[in-house]
Write a structure and sequence with these properties.
two-stranded antiparallel sheet, 2 domains, globular, mainly alpha, single chain, two-stranded antiparallel ribbon, 286 residues, 434 Repressor (Amino-terminal Domain)
Length: 286
């Protein structure tokens, strides 16, 4: 565990344990107020950043720019590594593109404080980093599965280089997404994959983007009898959208139950459920 700084009778928030920069700013400001009686107005005077701007950032009504962050760092009493981590954490949350979010996420994973406090998140990020990690893990349940990388490569419908498959198998076994018995046979254990924190949103976005790309590719490469890509576009009252999403979730749960109750499989499928707006609400942008 990384050690938190101690000032007065209170312990300061450990920034490496935070996944949302606004939550850290709120707690750090409260800590400085409680331990040193430094008010938000004083922070504003010390930094040259207006206290109203800081308040709007913390409440989520404004983004914290890099220029304003540099001014705030001394007043917030952050060390160099903490300030750097905070800068990348802001990028994870506020970046305007998935690519920028992923780059920032990779940067924060290099901080030892983050590594010490968030090993499971780093593991989950790496698991979601490539679509074939999930596919290979599920493939281990298929009848006749062979852990030989060449067999796996031939079994996958989309091209993956042999070195990447070898690396994926090693990763899955090392982190117990797959288990190897005494005879060398691999199987899928009951290990949950959870994406509860905001920093993993970028990794999950990348995973879904990869799967949507493969779905589009399947339209021209896979016979229609082996796939089901359908859609329905319609106008709908916005208050009915939660009910429509619930119907999709019920369908997802039924397919999960079907797979769980059907015994050993012979093929790996990715089932996707889409629902997204193509317009703004009536009366303008929402």
């Amino acid at each position: 565990m990384s050690e938190a700084k101690v000032l007065g009778a209170r312990t300061s928030p450990d920034i490496f344990n935070y996944h949302e920069y606004r939550a850290f700013l709120r707690d750090q400001l409260q800590y400085l107020k409680a331990s040193q009686n430094i008010s938000l107005r004083q922070i504003g005077k010390l930094s040259g950043v207006s206290d109203s701007y800081i308040s709007m950032v913390v409440s989520g009504h404004r983004r914290l720019s890099e220029e304003q962050l540099k001014k705030l760092v001394p007043a917030l009493q952050l060390e160099r590594s903490e300030a750097s981590y905070l800068s990348w954490l802001i990028s994870v949350v506020d970046a305007e593109s998935p690519e920028a979010q992923l780059e920032a996420l990779k940067k924060i994973q290099r901080f030892r404080g983050y590594q010490n406090l968030n090993p499971l998140e780093i593991e989950t990020y790496k698991y979601l980093e490539h679509w074939y990690h999930i596919a290979i893990r599920e493939l281990a349940q298929v009848t006749g599965f062979n852990p030989d990388p060449k067999w796996v490569q031939a079994a996958l419908r989309y091209k993956v280089a042999l070195p990447e498959i070898k690396e994926a198998l090693n990763f899955l076994v090392e982190h117990k997404f797959l288990e190897r018995d005494a005879s060398g046979k691999l199987s899928k254990p009951d290990k949950l994959v959870q994406c509860k924190t905001g920093v993993l949103k970028a990794a999950l976005t990348k995973f879904h983007t990869e799967m949507l790309t493969l779905a589009a590719q399947s339209i021209s490469e896979i016979e229609s009898e082996e796939r089901n890509i359908s859609a329905f576009t319609t106008a709908i009252p916005s208050e009915k959208v939660p009910e429509a999403k619930r119907i999709l979730e019920e369908a997802r749960q039924k397919i999960i139950e079907l797979a769980q109750n059907s015994g050993e499989g012979d093929v790996v499928y990715h089932f996707g459920f889409l629902a997204f707006p193509l317009s703004h609400k009536s009366g303008g942008k929402s």
